[in-house]
Design a protein that fits this description.
ligase
C-alpha cells in the first residue's frame, strides 16, 4: 500500500541540518542583547540549540500541556524566541505569537480567543516589564495554566525557563511530524475587527520559500534578520528562511543602525532581511564598502502601496528583493532588475523565482470585483478570512471563496497590464508592526482630556507614527495607561509630545 507523502515541519527542517552538520553555527544573538533584555549574547551550534530545544520541549510536556494545545509567546528577536518556537513544535503545541507593542486588552483578548494554556515572555524588554504584562493578562484569561519567562527578577508564580535550560532534557512525547498540522496563530486587524489567523507548517514554509527562491539565497548562508518576528512575515523571513537555507541565523532587535552594521560585518552575513525603508537607507550609504559580505538584501514592505514610488537600489553587488506584505493574509516578492527599480507585478500565478520559466507556483495575485487586491496560494489562510455569514441567511450555503481579499485598493495599469497598489485598507492604521482601527484613536484622544491631540502621521519607515500634544503630558500618559495602551506606545507619545 502506498503511504501518503507527508510534508515537512519546521522541526523536520531543523533536524535535517542537525544530522548533517551538528557543530555548524546555527543561532547568533543581537550584539546589544544585554541592553535589550539583560542577557549576554549567545552563539549556538545546531547541537547546542537542539539540547536547549529538547530541554524546553520536555518542560512543556512535563508541565501537562496537552498535544495540539496553544502556547502564547511574546518575545523579542533573540535566540530564546527561536528555541521556544521549535521546542513548542517538538512538543506538539501550536504557537500563538503576540507582538511586543500590544496593549493589555489585546493580550487578554488573544489569550481568550485562542484558549492558550501557557504564555512565555521575557522579564524585561527595553526597560519595560513584560513579565508583569503577562501576569496581568494571564489573570484575566481563564485557560492559562502556566506563565513562563526568561530573565531575572521574575514575579512570584512565573516559572524560570533559564533554569530549565540548565537542566538535562527530560520527558519526550511522540509527535507526528506532518506539515499539514497547525503550527502558529498570528493576529490581524481588518475592517471587521480583531482576527486570529491560524496556519499549518507548510504555509509558513511556503512563505519562506517565496522569499528565499526569489532572492536566490544560497544554501548555508548566514542570514541577518532585522524584522520583528511576531507575525507571519516575521516568522517566514527569519525562522523559515533560515531553516530552508541550512545556514546560520543572526538576529537583530530593531533598530540600532550602528549595531546592525557591526553585526553584519562581525558575522560576515550573506543576507540581510529588514524593513524595506531601512534597507534602502543602508543601500544609499555605500553598502559595498561598509558591508562587503552582503550578497542579498530582502526588503519587507509593510506599506506595499509605497513600493512603486520608492528610490532606485544602487548596490548592485547585493541585489534587492521587494517583499510585499499584506497583514497576516500573505506576501509575494519581486527581485529588482539591473536598473535598481521595482519591477512590474503582473496579475495571475507567480512562480519563485518569478522570472524563471517552469518555476514552482508560489501564489496567485488577482483583482477582486471591489477593486481590491486578492491573494490565493499555499501560504494564504483562506478560511481565516472568510466573510461573516449574512444575518438571516444562516440556512443558506454561501458560495465558496478561494482567495483572501487584502483590502488594499488596486488597479491594472493600462499600458503594461501590471497591478498597481494604490492605498491601504480603509480605516486601519499601522505603527510599525502594530495595526489598529483608526476609530481607536478617537477613544484614546478622548481620554487625554480637553485640548489634547492624538493622531497617526504617515511615516515612510513604519507606515504611521503616533504623535500627540496635551495640556498635561503626565496626565496624558496616565490616561493612555489606564486605557491599556502598551508602555512602549505610551513612551512614544511622551517622546513626540510637546508643550500645548
Amino acid at each position: 500500500m502506498n503511504q501518503p507523502a507527508i510534508s515537512p515541519t519546521l522541526d523536520t527542517l531543523f533536524q535535517r541540518t542537525l544530522i548533517r552538520q551538528p557543530h555548524a553555527l546555527a543561532l547568533l544573538d543581537p550584539l546589544n542583547k544585554a541592553r535589550v533584555t539583560g542577557h549576554q549574547p549567545r552563539r549556538l551550534t545546531y547541537a547546542e540549540a537542539d539540547t536547549a530545544i529538547e530541554a524546553l520541549s520536555a518542560y512543556f510536556v512535563e508541565s501537562g500541556l496537552p498535544a495540539n494545545s496553544v502556547i502564547a509567546i511574546q518575545l523579542p528577536a533573540t535566540v530564546e524566541f527561536v528555541l521556544t518556537v521549535l521546542a513548542a513544535h517538538r512538543a506538539g503545541l501550536v504557537v500563538a505569537v503576540l507582538p511586543l507593542l500590544w496593549r493589555h486588552a489585546e493580550l487578554t483578548a488573544a489569550l481568550n480567543r485562542t484558549a492558550a494554556r501557557a504564555i512565555v515572555t521575557m522579564s524585561t524588554v527595553d526597560g519595560v516589564s513584560y513579565a508583569d504584562l503577562a501576569m496581568h493578562a494571564a489573570a484575566e484569561a481563564f485557560s492559562i495554566r502556566h506563565v513562563c519567562g526568561f530573565g531575572t527578577d521574575l514575579p512570584e508564580g512565573m516559572a524560570s525557563l533559564d533554569d530549565v535550560l540548565t537542566r538535562p532534557p527530560g520527558t519526550t512525547r511522540a509527535v507526528i511530524q506532518d506539515g499539514r498540522k497547525a503550527a502558529m496563530i498570528s493576529f490581524d486587524v481588518t475592517a471587521e475587527g480583531f482576527r486570529p489567523v491560524p496556519r499549518p507548517h507548510f504555509s509558513l514554509i511556503a512563505g519562506g520559500l517565496a522569499m528565499s527562491l526569489e532572492a536566490d539565497i544560497r544554501q548555508g548562508a548566514t542570514v541577518m534578520a532585522a524584522f520583528t518576528p511576531m507575525s507571519f512575515a516575521g516568522l517566514a523571513s527569519s525562522l523559515a528562511v533560515w531553516l530552508l537555507s541550512g545556514g546560520a541565523l543572526a538576529l537583530h532587535h530593531p533598530f540600532e543602525n550602528e549595531v546592525l552594521e557591526r553585526q553584519i560585518n562581525e558575522h560576515e552575513c550573506d543576507v540581510l532581511i529588514a524593513p524595506a525603508q531601512l534597507a534602502l537607507r543602508l543601500g544609499d550609504a555605500d553598502l559595498a564598502a561598509r558591508m562587503p559580505s552582503l550578497r542579498n538584501v530582502i526588503g519587507l514592505w509593510r506599506a506595499p502601496e509605497q513600493v512603486a514610488a520608492s528610490d532606485a537600489w544602487i548596490a548592485p553587488h547585493a541585489p534587492l528583493t521587494d517583499v510585499y506584505l499584506f497583514g497576516e493574509a500573505g506576501l509575494f516578492g519581486a527581485r529588482r532588475g539591473e536598473d535598481g527599480m521595482p519591477v512590474p507585478v503582473m496579475p495571475g500565478p507567480h512562480g519563485a523565482p518569478r522570472e524563471q520559466s517552469g518555476s514552482s507556483i508560489a501564489g496567485e495575485i488577482l483583482l477582486t470585483p471591489k477593486g481590491t487586491l486578492g491573494l490565493r496560494g499555499a501560504m494564504v489562510p483562506i478560511a481565516a478570512y472568510a466573510p461573516p455569514q449574512p444575518v438571516g441567511d444562516t440556512l443558506i450555503a454561501q458560495p465558496p471563496r478561494d482567495y483572501v481579499d487584502t483590502g488594499y485598493a488596486a488597479r491594472l495599469d493600462r499600458p503594461s497590464g501590471a497591478i498597481c497598489i494604490t492605498a491601504p485598507p480603509s480605516g486601519i492604521m499601522a505603527v510599525g508592526g502594530y495595526r489598529f482601527l483608526s476609530n481607536d484613536l478617537q477613544e484614546w484622544a478622548r481620554r487625554l482630556g480637553q485640548g489634547a491631540l492624538l493622531t497617526a502621521l504617515p511615516d515612510r519607515l513604519s507606515g504611521h507614527r503616533l504623535a500627540g500634544r496635551a495640556q498635561d503630558n503626565t496626565r496624558a500618559r496616565e490616561a493612555l495607561s489606564e486605557l491599556g495602551l502598551n508602555p512602549l506606545m505610551v513612551e512614544a507619545f511622551r517622546d513626540r509630545s510637546g508643550p500645548a
